[in-house]
Design goal:
heterodimer; A: mainly beta; about 0% helix; globular; B: about 110 residues; mainly beta; about 45% strand
Chain lengths: ~120, ~110
């Protein structure tokens, strides 16, 4: 069973461009979480999605950031008009249960975004 | 969300046991205790979780205090590959499942 896949692994963008980060969950998992890790900082929750629904976006910045998890295909984290402060590692995780206190999240290898 | 407190860093010698402590004095009765670790330049990795009883798996053991206000992750024989940041996280029922990561404990393993 393939693990969580993220691509690209590394992404370089210039200020003002758009960044699209993709996450394919583990087979059979319909719950996806996105986290961001700024340089020298801890992991911060961004958003939790189920197929076609955003369940919890309490950690998403109010502007320029959006996420989706369509019925078919990977989950996408989209950052519009990137700024240098968006440079970070972005991790997605998938889980089979979503929200259950016994649930386990399986993380991908991350996408490292660098904004020039 | 209930908070956890961990030492910033710990050191261990290779092939010796390591005990990583975590305090969670405000834990509620339905909170599970989860441990994840993050190896350098990788995504976090699930280690173990438990509620009240001690738990064992192929990676580690989890010892939970009787009052549940603290727990200890035990690596029975540390290897160089166990050098990582270890996070102790509480997961509450009814939560959306998001993980609240603290600073964790950076474990250094000396050969």
């Amino acid at each position: 069973n393939a693990g969580v896949m993220q691509n690209p692994r590394h992404l370089v963008r210039r200020r003002g461009q758009e960044a699209r980060l993709r996450c394919s969950p583990m087979k059979g998992h319909s719950h996806v979480y996105w986290y961001r890790q700024l340089p020298e900082e801890g992991l911060k929750f961004m958003v939790y999605l189920q197929k076609e629904n955003i369940i919890d976006e309490s950690g998403m910045p109010k502007e320029r950031f959006s996420a989706e998890f369509p019925k078919e295909g990977p989950s996408i984290l989209r950052i519009q008009q990137v700024v240098r402060g968006d440079s970070a590692a972005y991790f997605c995780a998938s889980s089979p249960l979503g929200g259950a206190s016994t649930d386990t999240q399986y993380f991908g290898p991350g996408t490292r975004l660098t904004v020039l | 969300d209930a908070k956890t407190t961990q030492p910033n860093s710990m050191e261990s010698n290779e092939e010796e046991p390591v005990h990583l402590p975590c305090n969670h004095s405000t834990i509620s009765g339905t909170d599970y205790i989860h441990w994840y670790r993050q190896l350098p330049s990788q995504g976090p990795e699930y280690v173990i979780h438990g509620l009240t009883s001690n738990v064992n798996n192929r990676m580690a053991s989890l010892a939970i205090a009787e009052d549940r206000k603290s727990s200890t992750l035990i690596l029975h024989r540390a290897t160089l590959r166990d050098a990582a940041v270890y996070y102790c996280i509480l997961s509450a029922s009814g939560n959306t499942g998001k993980l609240i990561f603290g600073q964790g404990t950076t474990l250094q393993v000396k050969p």
